[in-house]
User: Fold these one by one.
Assistant:
Number 1:
Amino acid sequence: MSVVAYIGLGSNLGDSRQILIEAVQNLATLGKVTTSKLYESPPMGPQDQPNYLNAVARLETHLEPLVLLDELQRFENESGRVRLRRWGERTLDLDLLIYGQENIQNERLTVPHVGILERDFVVIPLLDLDAEMQLKGHVLKNLSILEHPTVTVLDDGDWAGL
Ligand code: ROI
């Protein structure tokens, strides 16, 4: 039985576009992957850092959540991940946003990821992948944060070369 997981991708250090492409190609070793559009978004957190590139990947996988998390952290580290400060710039973030219908709370993992509903750079790409998605009792397409989106589309095609 496979599960549909959604993974948030973010980068604002280095060659962010290439870093996200390689991250998607790494994810594709774990199961069937499709990607949202590719976005640019202003930083949430300290404003004296570059804009981010953001996207979300949909992954059909047989991996258990903590095994998947291990793989995501391995990909972050292999990308030469640098994180300069809390809420600051980083070369690659891979966040396990959603894992099937599961609610998970332990020392390593909170799923659904906290903060999804407040982050248009996560909600908008999620809607690319499932326009009717609901989460924690909210219909994502109706969220008020979508009235004034901060993100811009950089690439609405097959940017990751899948
Ligand atoms: N801001 C944006 N726009 N995109 C991100 O992916 C992102 N990631 C983070 C913080 C520092 C919260 N800000 C972000 O981890």
Note: The mean pLDDT is 96.
Number 2:
Amino acid sequence: MIKKLFQRVFRKPAQVRVEGKCHIIPFGVHGVGSDGISSAARRVTDGLQAAGYKAFVVGGAVRDLLLGRHPKDFDIATNATPEDVRRVFRRSRIIGRRFRLVHVMFGEEVVETSTFRRMIEAEDAETDEHGRLLRDNEFGDQEQDAARRDFTANALFYDPATQEIFDYHDGYADTRANILRVIGDPAVRYREDPVRMLRAVRLSAKLGMQLDAATAAPIFGMKELLGNVPQARLLDEMLKLLLSGHAVECVKKLREMDLHHGLLPMLDVILEQPMGEKFVMLALQNTDQRISEEKSVSPAFLFAALLWHEVLSAWKILQETGERPVAALHAAMDEVLNRQREQLSIPRRYDAIMKELWLLQPRFEQRGGQRPVRLLSQPRFRAAFDFLLLRCESGEVDADLGLWWDEFQDASDERRAEMLQPDEVPKKRRRRKKSGTADKPAAEDQPDEAVQIALPIE
Ligand code: ATP
Ligand code: MG
């Protein structure tokens, strides 16, 4: 008893050890317990270590734990090759061509496990004419793996067995001070991979971290380099940004840094039409809110919202040239999607849903006869109604329309009958032959000349 008390009073305080360039920070200093690590990730590090390899939780998860946030996933870094990892875990598969990773499966959870890799030395590096690295897939050691990462906060290794953090670039101090700092010379690192500029903006907005002055400074002058990044990668990054749960802050920050201009056509579309800006900001807010409530968000819904005001103005112009509303809407949708595709290509698999959401909008105006009931039975009704609510909130259409539909969908048959407005569609038109395809609903379900179509007031 006395011995224990003695030990407690005179125990040496936890201390950071230095081994070469690495600072090893014990649990007593950082306080991140291994209970914050998912059991699947823990099984991967334990399994690899038992087989004689080094294995750590790395990157975003360690940073998030230090910031007191819930990591969205746990990545593992190891000195085992992909084949070694496969041998240790039967339920795993090697993925990726550019750099081979292993997905280790435990029930629902997939743990991405990558072998330490190094940045290829300048003279051996394969780059494009602007200095962008085309290949960085060489195995390396732990120190090299830290150096090839983007930010100091993203280069920390955590060993769940010893609860120690391995830090080669003062990432621990930066994370504690809430600073996001590029490893090495920021201008060089942005030239190697311009997407890091977008990552700087996204991560600082998402995590509420301050961008270090030297990290922020070159961005303004180097933003044109984003133009050389393959479209698919840019789209990936934009999706991460829009679905980060902090889309509003991210977009504000991109705008502050003038990163949206000319480079990311999608954002130009978003922010440079005053009428659409309010709608788009509401759509982003709504997405952030849904993510914070752990509800699903659909990229197609978001893209449909981002492009809605483009569709509206094209639709309006086409109607003014004498085109009938339905035909004009179809033409407007195709025009906007084609124009967008020349810039940042939204995957075609989203087209059908986006078109459906847009085509259903004018149908909310029709509140007579059987039409509202038919609209309720549309499989995409819920999403289309959410879209309508955003339009109401932004002031594009009358709020009463949203309220009417809110009540109508849950009302009793008697109440519905009371709510229905007189059917103004001439009988002759209603008997028109049905000709529907999946993309184009039957003629009578579409808005036609007899239907008042709400166009935004400019
Ligand atoms: P998030 O929480 O959004 O997933 P993250 O930092 O984990 O953030 P990932 O895209 O999952 O981001 O990347 C995992 C890790 O890979 C990063 O923490 C970083 O160490 C490294 N990394 C990712 N992209 C780059 C890049 N472009 N250049 C250098 N290192 C990168
Ligand atoms: Mg991650």
Note: The mean pLDDT is 87.
Number 3:
Amino acid sequence: MKLKLFSCAITLAGMLSAQAQHVMEVKTAKLGAPVSSTMYGLFFEDINFAADGGLYGELVKNRSFEFPQSYMGWRVFGNVELKNDGPFERCPHYVVLSDPGHKERRTGLQNEGYFGIGIEKGKEYRFSVWAKAPKGNSQIRVQLINEFTGEEHQEFVQQKLDITSSDWKQYEIVLKSKRTEPRAQLRIFLSSPNPVALEHVSLFPVDTYKGRKNGLRRDLAQALADMKPGVFRFPGGCIVEGTTLDSRYQWKNTIGRVENRPLNRNRWEDTFDYRYYADYYQSYGLGFFEFFQLCEDIGAEPLPVLSVGLACQFQNGESAHAKMDELQPFIDDCLDLIEFANGPADSKWGKIRAEMGHPEPFNMKYIGIGNEQWDTPYFERLKPFVAAVRAKYPNIKIVGTSGPDSEGKMFEKGWVAMKEQKADLVDEHFYRPESWFLGTPEAKERYGNCGALRYDSYDRKGPKVFAGEYACHGKGKKWNHYETSLYEAAFMTSLERNADIVEMATYAPLFAHIDGWQWRPDMIWYDNIRMFKSVSYYVQQMYAMNKGTNVLSLTTKDPGDKKGKKMVPVAGQEGMDGLFASSVYDKGTGEVIIKVINTSKQPQAVQLNLQGMTGERTAETLTLQHNGSMDDENTLDQPDKIRPVAGSVKCETTGKKQQTVLNDEVPAMAFRLYKVKK
Ligand code: AHR
């Protein structure tokens, strides 16, 4: 190094290992492209029991007896009759509990929840039920039980509830538990001679996110908020399409009072017979209103995705899809959704939103049309949707898709079609191995444009990129582990550097129940009472919380350029020793933020020349690093095993102008983020 370093008594440079130093030039005085506020977001799909059994706070499965097998999730005993002329026309089933016919016999029912019901010591649970007592006052006993205990009593909480009206009415009691039971059940006994009719039997924690009655599981929703996501894509994923068109996600069925939202079969019930869950349905209790509300709560732009009239293309041939002359109801769904979200409170759909408690518009700006569709069946169907949305809502940004692959013929064709149809954004999906994320020569040979230089060559004149689903899937190791998360971090430098073309990016999938998943890796895992954030979560969070407002040029000398003049991005190319880096400036905080990922097995010495900055400073750092096996991950028992750790590095100065220089050694297989006040 020719640079002469001043003013720092103990320079880190002296302590650096024998590795060659990597000098990077960061142009802090020249602001580059703005970083979109939507850049790092979340993608929610009801896969892996992410909604019912996950984020949605309801603890009772099949609460309205609407599953095709009416008692799925329930065990009934004694004199129980199923009826179907209940008070809610789209969920007409209910049960009548009558005297068992002998004083020593019992009538009742028991619900298993989702892999049990998670009950926590000291917490309150709201039991509610629609009921009537057709033959005079009746009573039920509501219990939380541990069926598999050796103790004298299975119940650990019990309360009586009088049903006092012969008309349907909602009753509510709050149960408080003195102990934690992760796999409890709900048991209801008829405890009067008179019969009782029960419908929509529900149990929620009182302490939901934001304290709402039809609310979300607090810890999971909080984890989303803690990421400060810029955008929230929902409700899928393949469930937008359905295994058949009639099981596609239909947003109109998900609004209005929860008791009357019809059940839908979950597409993920049908997908893998080696991880099969016959009881995977969508109650729609977490519906579009709740999604919009969540977006508002966590400060993310809502990005709903709707069916384009195609059932899942992987699972079906042409005959399964809506024909071209059958598309109008699907197009209406798009237009009506925009009115539901943004229309005045006296418009047809805006009125429903207002009645649900949100008279102000949700101010939705984006709509996705089609999930992961490809080829002519998609392109021809998309056209009338685009025309209709543009005509009525010219300011809404339309998100099209390039299909399930991140390269290849269909992908290219998708991009051409999206350009022709002037989509505002193209949703790309890539679940790819380590080599793809690192952009190794072998991966380039096999896949073409991959790795952290992927977006540098994209056409700047067409639609913007939405990396709508991506995750590094370890080759032969398709589960969450540290190494793949680190490679995601490395790849994400390319999203940041190319913020002029990449407008948003969302890792996928988001949630997984430890006892009921179909797909790995996932960002957040949980059981009935605990959760952990994966290393991928922390990677996403480090980017999302430090996205800055403008890109800064960060380059180094091209190791392949003999003259040593050409400057190139730091993107893991040959000679970079596994380093990836990018930089942004944050106008709000006045900070220069630099992200460096070292994917090599050795520590790497880096010198960051902060051009345009002078004087000594201290950089705050955040380091994600793991000294154990690269296959490790956080767990329910050790949720904090791997997480970013804060630190600091003293910057030095060089030259007459006293330019600020940051010298550091980035640990092997680590992601270090630097923040320096300008
Ligand atoms: O994220 C899991 C699935 O991957 C999504 O449902 C689908 O869009 C993609 O194939």
Note: The radius of gyration is 28 Å.
Number 4:
Amino acid sequence: MPSTVSSRAPQSRAEPPQDCRVCARLAAFRDINRSSYPDFFNAPVPSFGPADAALLIVGLAPGLKGANQTGRPFTGDYAGDLLYETLGEFGFARGTYRADPNDGLELVDCRITNAVRCVPPQNKPIGAEIKACRPFLAATLGQSDSLKAIVALGRIAHDSVLSALGQRRAAFPFGHNARHEIGSLTLFDSYHCSRYNTNTGRLTPEMFKAVFAAVRQEIG
Ligand code: URA
């Protein structure tokens, strides 16, 4: 584990408080959503899966009517359909994904988090928000002594992981299905499994599965 990330970060530092107001724009958006959608979760979405997992998947940010509604990463978001199906296929999830945090789905040796924990307007966090949320990502990376592999879904997640690990971005260029050795960790990159990327064919299910096949081979 690189020395820039504490290997035993306390649990509290890995999750923002439910009324985190570090990012004024995201806090204001949350206030609006709390009044427009009072039944939604409308808070920083916590990581999902065992804290001591060997694999950490890093997404971008919760979708308004997906993870921000359900309170579980990728749950109810279009991107979750391919992600959870793929995790099941490679033995990283057990049970049936039903886009509902009470579906009983369990992650196996795998944890999912987001680079930005609060839903951003138009699904687009700005640089200052990605930076402000990074200490939570760094603490999440430091939680598992068993961590072996990270999958970054998209360039923003890739860049934020590198910064959280204290690495230079220029040394590890993002590319779909690229792998980077960083100390004892392997960082795998994938195009984000967003609706846009899958609908345009930038990311096919086969391309996405190839990444997880490589991860499974690495983790064993
Ligand atoms: N939902 C999430 O939780 N994260 C993403 O990156 C996309 C959708």
Note: Helices lie at 11-14, 24-36, 67-70, 78-89, 127-141, 155-164, 195-199, 205-219.
